[in-house]
Specification:
By secondary structure, the protein is α/β, with parallel strands linked by helices. It folds into two domains: 172 residues, Rossmann fold, CATH 3.40.50; 195 residues, Up-down Bundle (Dehydroquinate synthase-like, alpha domain). The protein has 14 helices and eight strands. The strands form two sheets. It has a six-stranded parallel β-sheet, sandwiched between helices. Strands 6-7 form a two-stranded antiparallel sheet. α4 packs across α5, α7 packs parallel to α9 and α7 crosses α11. The longest helix has 32 residues. The chain starts with 10 loop residues before the first strand and ends with a helix. The mean pLDDT is 97. The structure holds 5,6-dihydroxy-NADP (NZQ) and zinc ion.
Amino acid sequence: MANTTVHNPIKMVVGVGSVEKVGEEAALLGKRALIVIGGSSAKKTGLLDSVSADLKANGVDVSVFEGITPNPRSSTVDEAAKMAAEKNIDLIVGLGGGSVMDASKAIRLAYSSGEPVFDFHMGVADAKTVQPKAALLLVSTMAATGSEFNNWCVITNWETHEKRAINPPIYFPSTSIVDPALTLSMPLPQVAKGGVDIFLHVMENYIMHTGGAPLADAIREAIMKTAVDALSVAVKDTNNIEARTSLCWTSSLACSQTITLGGGAGWRPIHLIEHPISGVFDISHGDGLAALLPAWLEQNMEARGDRIAKMAKNVFGADSEPIAAVEKWLDEVGMKMNLRQLGVTEDKFEQMAQNALDTSRGLLAKNLVHNSVESIAALYKAAY
Ligand code: NZQ
Ligand code: ZN
């Protein structure tokens, strides 16, 4: 059983209607806020207007930075940090999915340090010593990454197409608001991509974990099963708020330290192998994961067949043919796909495989399978 350190200093405000607390929570953290949003959803749904009004009603000044894209770019983050400095802000409020939440974390770091954010993601500068100049409040509008309940942040340098994740303390939000009703406006394909991401955050850890930790296994099986069942309901009954609430809870827990409770450890090889795909081809993270999943399971059967079988039995109720059970679920929620359909081209397989190795901090090189350019490129090929 792995030794575990748990430190997750985030105030979570969760539940239907909890977005109404945003002004009150913001006022506890700062006086001059920069609200960060993506392309258009926060405007279309009226969220930007209502949050701005609530902040102002609670005595918080508001500036807005819009235009964070999916697979957020370091250049956009640096631009927003300049605006934060011009306005001398003391609070960043991110309203959106994983991309906006990650970008908000990164803006906090770039603003506080005065340095280009990608220097930290490359390890050229050290984020651990940077003192925050602004608090960070996140309002999650998607169930997917769990960025609201962790200190991970994934940023892409669009010049080099390197997508890199780091998790320094400054990337812990001060407060996060998770209101499942905000997720009802998500387009259906986005709901399914998010559900696959939630499932894989736990499944990869679960399958890579060896050494026995019954409580951690039980926690992780419960999160996976809840997410899998809730997604099956949410794609059919699109206004089912209970299913959306379950997806939100599992989203927050799945990519947090919760899944290490009970002595669980593990890591996420599919994620490391997916990031170069979305970093080069700008596809959705959830699509990339879904395309890799069946082939990854297939190629891990020899090394980790016992863990794959246990997952399939306890999550999908499958006594045999574990991969078929996972594929059936992917099909049912509209996520059975391959890399070719997503527009990925074979000429980039080696470059992406090398990039996965380079950005994995040595984890992939020590792996039993998918530990070299050849083996990772072979996985891309099988998922093609
Ligand atoms: O940009 P807008 O207009 O807001 O539209 C977004 C975007 O087009 C839209 N959207 C979000 N909430 C909505 C909504 N549309 C309607 N109603 C709503 N309530 O959805 C689209 C996708 O959003 P995005 O934030 O890109 O999706 P996701 O949450 O999947 O985030 C993906 C990013 O997070 C990273 C991924 O690599 C990727 O860059 N990850 C972050 C992690 C973390 N910080 O812990 C872990 C993950 O494994 C992941 O790597
Ligand atoms: Zn993910």
